[in-house]
């Protein structure tokens, strides 16, 4: 091998693309040896090694568990992405393992990502983790808490943790006082940028008080937090989070064991929570179930959020008159998702919106369709600057009028769209395809528009009829970006004719999951 060949081989082995391919085939011992070659190999090999090895710590009398795929010693510099699973052992210990605590002293400074899954019994141990250990380089934290199910005990027993199986049932009525846990003081997390908190299996109002105080402590200790996602049943105070940009908040509805009723979002508390971060947020996502058995469900009225640019509201009703330029002056992107699942229409969403917002340029809506011409006209008038549109209608078979559907789509013809996707689901008759296309053909430009039709799900999809009227409207829509039709029925001979018609006229139409 001459010098030129050696140079080429060396250059190839220092190419990250080539190295990543080679390293992906190595086992843990080989990777460990390869990382000693040079700094580049060490850096690239670390991620592959991290996927193959783990160190398991347990309490009780057990030592560190070693398996064939695990390292026989813990290298602190490798501990950049750490997953910690804290579940009760057979002897019911709920403290952090001593060998884990000892290693955390060396590891914590290297951790960049930390993913904790834990039983709620470990809440004191979790507090200890943040009180005693410093994570200066932690960027991303994910915390999943699995609530221990409350048994058929008295509430006073549940609060105190004491239970005598032989005591009389009459003692269940003992008075009690619920003490809210103090917000713990944790060591600062100076570089933490994102927190995701998920609470699962709650069935008692007071269950989340411990984890809510820990969550608040983490927020208080994270001066540079940018992104927060919470799936829980409490309402944090974001006042300390003066750099918070993105909030994704999902209220988890649950059945309260003690009062035997469902617990829904408390709208006033939600509004107060949002008020604590109103001056910083640029993106907001809300998903909260409402109790529709109430005679007058509380109306969601957002506080003024001056820097908000994008908002997504998922299946929440009713909404107040907050979608205007005075309240949300920098808003450009609006998404209403999941309203088709709750059987809500455009009218349900927009009925309380009365003031215009010329700054909104992107609109995304998922609803059930109920003859919406008047509401569609209102939307086009209130938000005249929309450039990007996604509209998903789920058709209600018994309540859809052909002309109303056509005119509803035609109501958006005033917009100068640069991108649009129209999705029509549960189509029960091919005449609705024609109605939609007749509405779309009135829009100012067809080239940015894509359309997707999905037939009604069931044993047999709707029959597609290719008659003269259908051919005419398909030809008039030939400049659409694309049309996709799925779950329709057509006899094989007629479908072949339809495919030939599509090919002959170079129509941008694709057919999928069609049956005879």
Write the layout of secondary structure elements.
Layout: H1 3-13, H2 16-23, H3 28-34, H4 39-52, E1 81-86, H5 98-107, E2 113-119, H6 123-132, E3 140-146, H7 155-160, E4 194-200, H8 209-220, E5 227-232, E6 246-251, E7 254-256, E8 261-263, H9 267-275, E9 283-288, E10 310-314, E11 333-337, H10 346-350, E12 362-369, H11 373-382, E13 388-395, H12 402-410, E14 419-427, H13 431-440, E15 449-455, H14 468-476, E16 482-486, H15 492-504, E17 509-512
Parallel strand pairs: 1-2, 2-3, 3-4, 4-5, 5-6, 6-9, 9-10, 10-11, 11-12, 12-13, 13-14, 14-15, 15-16, 16-17
Antiparallel strand pairs: 7-8
Helix pairs in contact: 2-4, 3-4, 6-8, 11-12, 12-13, 13-14
Average of per-residue pLDDT values: 82
Distance linking N and C termini: 65 Å
- The helicity comes to 25-40%
| Structure annotation, total helices | 15
Gyration radius, rounded = 29 Å
The strand count comes to 17
Low-confidence stretches: 60-72, 150-172, 174-178
Shape: globular
Overview of this protein structure:
- With 516 residues, this protein is α/β, with parallel strands linked by helices.
- Among the domains are: 7-52; 57-151 and 183-263.
- Helix content is 28%, strand content 20%.
- The chain is built from 15 helices and 17 strands.
- The chain has helices at residues 3-13, 16-23, 28-34, 39-52, 98-107, 123-132, 155-160, 209-220, 267-275, 346-350, 373-382, 402-410, 431-440, 468-476, 492-504; strands at 81-86, 113-119, 140-146, 194-200, 227-232, 246-251, 254-256, 261-263, 283-288, 310-314, 333-337, 362-369, 388-395, 419-427, 449-455, 482-486, 509-512.
- The strands form 2 sheets. Strands 1-2-3-4-5-6-9-10-11-12-13-14-15-16-17 form a 15-stranded parallel sheet, with no helix packed on it. It has a two-stranded antiparallel sheet with strand order 7-8.
- Helix 6 runs parallel beside helix 8 (209-220).
- The longest helix has 14 residues, at 39-52.
- The radius of gyration is 29 Å and the shape is globular.
- Mean pLDDT is 82; it is low at 60-72, 150-172 and 174-178.
């Amino acid at each position: 091998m001459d010098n030129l060949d050696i140079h080429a081989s060396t250059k190839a082995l220092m190419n990250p693309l080539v190295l990543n391919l080679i390293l992906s085939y190595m086992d843990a011992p080989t990777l460990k040896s390869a990382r000693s070659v040079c700094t580049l190999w060490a850096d690239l090999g670390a991620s592959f090694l991290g996927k193959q090895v783990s160190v398991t710590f347990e309490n009780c009398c057990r030592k560190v568990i070693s398996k064939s795929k695990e390292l026989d010693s813990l290298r602190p510099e490798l501990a950049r992405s750490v997953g910690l699973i804290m579940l009760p052992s057979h002897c019911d210990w709920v403290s952090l393992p001593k060998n884990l605590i000892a290693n955390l002293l060396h590891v914590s400074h290297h951790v960049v990502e930390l993913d904790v899954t834990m039983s709620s019994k470990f809440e004191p141990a979790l507090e200890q983790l943040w009180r005693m250990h410093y994570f200066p380089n932690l960027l991303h934290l994910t915390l999943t808490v699995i609530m221990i199910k409350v048994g058929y005990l008295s509430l006073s027993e549940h609060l105190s943790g004491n239970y005598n199986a032989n005591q009389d049932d009459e003692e269940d009525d003992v008075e009690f006082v619920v003490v809210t846990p103090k917000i713990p003081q944790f060591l600062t997390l100076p570089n933490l940028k994102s927190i995701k908190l998920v609470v699962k299996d709650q069935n008692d109002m007071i269950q989340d008080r411990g984890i809510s105080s820990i969550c608040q402590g983490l927020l208080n200790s994270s001066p540079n937090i940018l992104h927060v996602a919470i799936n829980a049943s409490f309402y944090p105070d974001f006042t300390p989070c003066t750099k918070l940009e993105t909030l994704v908040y999902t209220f988890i509805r649950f059945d309260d064991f003690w009062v035997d009723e469902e617990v829904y979002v408390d709208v006033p508390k939600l509004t107060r929570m949002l008020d604590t971060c109103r001056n910083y947020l640029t993106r907001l996502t809300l998903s909260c179930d409402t109790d529709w058995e109430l005679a007058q469900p509380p109306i969601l009225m957002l506080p003024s959020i001056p820097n908000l640019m994008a908002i997504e509201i998922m299946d929440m009703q009713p909404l107040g008159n907050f979608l205007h330029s005075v309240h949300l002056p920098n808003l450009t992107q609006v998404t209403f998702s999941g309203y088709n699942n709750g059987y809500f229409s455009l009218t349900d969403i927009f009925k309380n919106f009365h003031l215009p917002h010329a700054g909104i340029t992107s609109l995304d809506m998922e609803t059930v369709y109920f003859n919406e011409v008047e509401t569609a006209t209102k939307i086009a008038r209130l938000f005249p600057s929309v450039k990007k549109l996604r509209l998903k209608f789920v058709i209600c078979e018994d309540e859809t009028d052909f002309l109303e559907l056509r005119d509803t789509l035609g109501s958006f013809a005033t917009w100068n769209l640069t991108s649009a996707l129209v999705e029509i689901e549960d189509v029960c008759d091919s005449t609705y395809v024609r109605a939609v296309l007749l509405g779309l053909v009135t829009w100012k430009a067809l080239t940015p528009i894509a359309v997707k039709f999905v037939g009604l799900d069931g044993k047999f999809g709707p029959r597609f009829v290719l008659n003269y009227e259908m051919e005419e409207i398909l030809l008039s829509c030939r400049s659409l970006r694309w049309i996709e039709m799925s779950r329709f029925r057509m006899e094989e001979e007629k479908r072949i004719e339809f495919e030939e018609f599509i090919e002959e006229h170079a129509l941008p139409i694709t057919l999928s999951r069609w049956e005879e």
